[in-house]
């Protein structure tokens, strides 16, 4: 077994031990109880944008009850279960913070917030090149999905739910027979991420935008910002395993220039909302 594989398995064993210890501590805790129900936070973004890493770090806190998309209590085939089921899990939560992933449900976040007043959202955005490269490793049907969505918003399960007429019109511009899977995946990145602006999250003080690239390059500063936003104490220990090796790991995919231009424009809108990084002009 190579060094990287050994480090990976040791890390998983450490995480498994920590989660068991955390469960015991939370269920044996007899100290002061929280006032009122647990605070609810949704971790949002497009698939392959780093939400797993973010959830893993948040799970390191003793003050969180974290529900990944692989958790059958809260998800079925990566989609969130009925809201009543999530509400029941929330009601049984023993931690002060109830944190659940929301990827297939980006378009449902406004409705979910109505059910859980005071909800906070952390939306992570990653450069589309790395997202597309990651998507193409596992799936080769993005072009066909875009062609179908260009004709019918509900043709491909949750992917087109909440899609605006303007976004569908953009898909129609590119949905010809020559559309490649790389360009199709980039358009999928676009149509899911543009919901951030279409739902007014850029003007919402209870929504925090996070750059994946900044998160892995400056984990202590960025995770301190996230934890503070959620009302959690942060220690560098929480993010000790975060590394930046996944950024620009592969060559940029062969995305059609016009599609790339649309993605660049959307990415620029995101970057304009981020706080100035150390060394940048405000």
Automatic annotation (TrEMBL):
> What InterPro entries would the database entry show?
P-loop_NTPase
SUPFAM superfamilies (UniProt xref) = P-loop containing nucleoside triphosphate hydrolases
State the protein's name.
Answer: Sulfotransferase domain-containing protein
The source organism is Thiohalobacter thiocyanaticus
């Amino acid at each position: 077994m190579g060094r990287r594989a050994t480090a990976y398995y040791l890390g998983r064993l450490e995480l498994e031990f920590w989660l068991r210890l955390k469960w015991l501590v939370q269920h044996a805790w007899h100290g002061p109880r929280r006032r009122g129900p647990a605070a609810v936070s949704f971790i949002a973004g497009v698939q392959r944008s780093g939400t797993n890493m973010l959830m893993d770090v948040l799970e390191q806190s003793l003050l969180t009850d974290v529900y990944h998309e692989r958790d059958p209590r809260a998800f079925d085939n990566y989609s969130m279960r009925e809201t009543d089921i999530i509400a029941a899990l929330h009601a049984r939560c023993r931690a002060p913070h109830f944190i659940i992933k929301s990827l297939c449900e980006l378009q449902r976040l406004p409705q979910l917030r109505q059910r859980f007043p005071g909800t906070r959202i952390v939306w992570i955005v990653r450069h589309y090149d790395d997202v597309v490269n990651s998507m193409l490793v596992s799936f080769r049907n993005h072009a066909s999905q875009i062609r179908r969505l260009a004709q019918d918003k509900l043709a491909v399960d949750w992917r087109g739910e909440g899609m605006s007429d303007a976004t569908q019109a953009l898909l129609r511009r590119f949905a010809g027979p020559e559309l490649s899977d790389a360009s199709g995946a980039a358009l999928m990145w676009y149509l899911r991420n543009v919901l951030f602006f279409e739902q007014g999250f850029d003007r919402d003080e209870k929504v925090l935008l996070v750059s994946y690239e900044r998160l892995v390059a400056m984990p202590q500063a960025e995770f301190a910002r996230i934890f503070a936003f959620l009302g959690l104490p942060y220690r560098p220990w929480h993010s000790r395993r975060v590394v930046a090796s996944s950024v620009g790991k592969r060559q940029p995919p062969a995305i059609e220039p016009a599609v790339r231009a649309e993605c660049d424009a959307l990415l620029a809108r995101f970057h304009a909302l981020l706080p100035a990084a150390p060394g940048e002009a405000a």
